[in-house]
Amino acid sequence: AGPAAAPGSPRDRLARLPPEQQYCGSLSLGALDAVPTDVLAQILRLLGPVDAARSGTVCRAWRILASDNGLWAFFLRLGPEPWDLVVFAETHLAAGPDPHPWLYYDHSPQLSFKQIYGLRAVVPGTLIVDGGSGYCKYGWSKYAAPSGRCATFLEFGNIESPMYARLRHFFSTIYTRMQVKPSTQPVIVVLPLCHTDDTESARASRKQYKETVYSVLFDMNAPAVCAVDQAVLSLYSAKRTSGIVVHIGFNNTSVVPIFEGRVMYEIGVETVGQGALKLTGYLKELMHQRNITCDSLYTVRTIKEKLCYVAADYEAELRKDTQASCEIDGEGWFTLSEERFKTAEILFQPHMGGMRAMGLHKAIALCMDHCYNSEVVGDDSWYKTVVLAGGSSCLPGLPERLEKELRQLLPPYISEGIRVLPPPFGTDSAWFGAKMISNVSTFTEAWCVKKKQFRQKIRRNGPLFVNSW
Ligand SMILES: Nc1ncnc2c1ncn2[C@@H]1O[C@H](COP(=O)(O)OP(=O)(O)OP(=O)(O)O)[C@@H](O)[C@H]1O
Known about the structure:
Strand order of the largest sheet: 3-2-1-4-5-14
Oligomer: single chain
Helix content: 40-55%
Number of strands: 14
Bound molecules: adenosine-5'-triphosphate
Distance between the termini: 79 Å
């Protein structure tokens, strides 16, 4: 007899089968019977996924050995996606959006790691398009980062106003730059945060935008389209399906409560009328006051990214020496001091920048208060995790300052346990959230809408808004 099998190991499972099912004549693995199970497992690991899967076709004994969950978890760990993101995606995102408007996909079966590996291996490469109001990021789902970026506002105008022609021009340009035909792969579109009220007309505008996106892409022959809210994707990239996303966008900042992957418009999305553009403009103004001349807003933007930060305590920071310099290609050296933290201070004290908006910490506190008082059942601390998103949320010190302000503003029963997380993937959080979805084993069935399904829905529900233009 071979060495004793460890409880739960493939060989142990084999030994527990009734004799008639112990195909191969006996429990024996033949000459390999003398080899300890962990050595056999190691051999299968070294063989790699293709040969390990092939060895499972030899006989029932090998099939059990080669189907081991630990073995396939090992192969998944070797893949390009970080293991923690794979586990999150397969456990939380495989079921698709909820409620899914077009599909009635039964996601009940619990897949083994071997099945997950097999399905992930054949998920098609997907084009991901995050058309931000300021900057667009696009690229392949199998790549580590977006391969292209462009200034949306300069090239395409306001793509949030759902003009069929404007969106068609936008998507055509992206396909041309990626050098692919629309018909050859699915596409994920990141839906911008717009029309955030909980009114009938805001709901209609959101629907209109989404349906225009589908309509444009299906008219361009895309085989399958997946459109998901920007804030939801940013939350997924932080491995969460519930929480508050604070998205500092190009023109506006939004505080978005999300519960189990759904934006809670009924609780209220707070919008603060300042974003990246305002921060850059304010830094330019501060530099001008100190006779630091710089005509190009692009240069000011780069200086902001290199030198600016958020003060933990604004008054204390004013008393410190905060001077620092950076070099900008072709423009020379720039030295800033107070401007470094005064720029971002308008997020907390908008009046400094001449605005009558609400401070960001107050908007988040308000949102948390609404969440606390809402009727959402389940985990009552879901809103205590704040995930920062959008390029400007990369400002160093922002999570710490927000946490501090929120603790001061909110009563302990709400503020206890609050965590503010920095943007998990910098400016590209939403893009990475889309990448997680596009690589999940059930992507095309659970997340995508196919052309036929879309057309059937139109026939069922009557003409779309887009037809009225
Ligand atoms: N490290 C950084 N520090 C400060 N600001 C940064 C940093 N990195 C990027 N940004 C700023 O983020 C802004 C771009 O943000 P982002 O790409 O999220 O905009 P967007 O997606 O177009 O916005 P929206 O969500 O409104 O569509 C730029 O103004 C850029 O200067």
